[in-house]
Write a structure and sequence with these properties.
The longest helix is centred in the last third of the chain and has 27 residues, at 284-310. It contains 14 helices and no strands. It is mainly alpha-helical. The protein is elongated, with a radius of gyration of 23 Å.
Length: 338
């Protein structure tokens, strides 16, 4: 259609929309380069629409929405390629565009949709600021995102995804504070995220994404409490994470994303048990029990990694992790032998 009529605005936007949808589909299978190629083409079409028909392009809400989404998708690809400066620039443009769309929207449905886009882009921009060492700016953006997600959830209490978005943002803030070594604050946000996950899973017990989040936040709370020396509470949360994980694996035993998460959870459980085993005042019998638990978790993590390897789903970082797991297993075996 565009070959016949290069100035067909609707066709330009239709094609840009299709390219953005395709970019999401190829992201996991083909990686950031494929995503970037499609997103950049979509961005070119949106910019060309504004240049060819300035008034229509600038005033067309669909065009402005697609332009914002194109900038966001380019930012996602640049972040995956670890071009954080480029990602920051793209997210800055998408954030500004979605903020304008949100402020100008009048229909409640449009207002809610653009507010969600705004919250997501605040989170992404905050993540980049944090990674670039601008921690206060990153934290401020993350807290703004939480405010918007919370407003959306309060306005639509029966929307499970809106409630889940609030949980995810609490987890993100927990990660911020964990990296800043503020463990009490990290545990607080992880715990709040877990409480929301439990509500979401009760309302939608077959939702794998929500069950995965519940598992991760249970482990997050347990791991953070273990670092602070609260052994009893840490054990409780870590046990919950493993029990929920085993239940989920029974029905989703071959899903690559779940297998990768399970590998990480068992690895963290091994670390937690090492912390318990090496703390002061632990008896020989207790130490032995903790080293045995750590050994089992590390072996389980390694087995999952090897399973992913057989499927051809091992990244470079996973290959490095394999050596670390062998070292941890050898350490546990040495401790138990002594």
């Amino acid at each position: 259609i565009l070959q016949k009529n290069p100035n067909d605005l609707a066709a330009q936007f239709d094609l840009a929309d299709s390219l953005l949808k395709m970019s999401g589909a190829v992201e996991y299978a083909e990686g950031a380069d494929a995503t970037m190629k499609l997103a950049q083409r979509a961005l070119e079409l949106c910019l060309a629409a504004q240049q060819q028909q300035p008034a229509a392009g600038a005033d067309n809400e669909r065009g402005r929405q697609l332009l914002a989404s194109s900038h966001e998708t380019v930012g996602n690809a640049l972040r995956a390629k670890r071009d954080f400066d480029g990602a920051r620039a793209s997210y800055g443009k998408s954030l500004s565009a979605f903020e304008t769309l949100f402020q100008n929207a009048t229909a409640p449905a449009d207002k809610a949709r653009y507010q969600r886009n705004l919250a997501i882009n605040l989170r992404k921009y905050g993540d980049i600021e944090w990674m670039k060492g601008q921690q206060q700016d990153g934290l401020a953006l993350a807290l703004r995102a939480l405010e918007h997600f919370t407003t959306l959830a309060q306005a639509d209490p029966n929307n499970a995804q809106a409630q889940f978005a609030v949980s995810a943002q609490h987890t993100s803030l927990g990660n911020y504070y964990w990296e800043a070594k503020d463990l009490p604050k990290a545990a607080e946000y992880y715990r709040q995220g877990l409480q929301l996950d439990e509500i979401c899973v009760r309302n939608d017990p077959n939702n794998v994404q929500m069950r995965r989040s519940l598992i991760v936040n249970s482990q997050n709370v347990g791991y953070t409490l273990a670092q602070q020396g609260d052994v009893a509470s840490a054990q409780q949360y870590c046990a919950k994470a493993l029990a929920e994980l085993e239940g989920l694996l029974k029905t989703n035993a071959t899903a690559p994303g779940l297998l990768n998460m399970a590998k990480e959870i068992y690895g963290y459980d091994g670390e937690v048990n090492v912390i318990f085993a090496e703390r002061r005042g632990v008896t020989t019998a207790e130490s032995q029990r903790y080293w045995q638990a750590a050994l089992r978790s590390y072996q389980r993590s390694l087995a999952l990694l090897q399973q992913l390897k057989e499927k051809g789903l091992v990244r470079r970082i996973d290959a490095q992790q394999e050596g670390s797991l062998h070292s941890e297993i050898a350490k546990c075996q040495s401790k138990l032998k002594r």
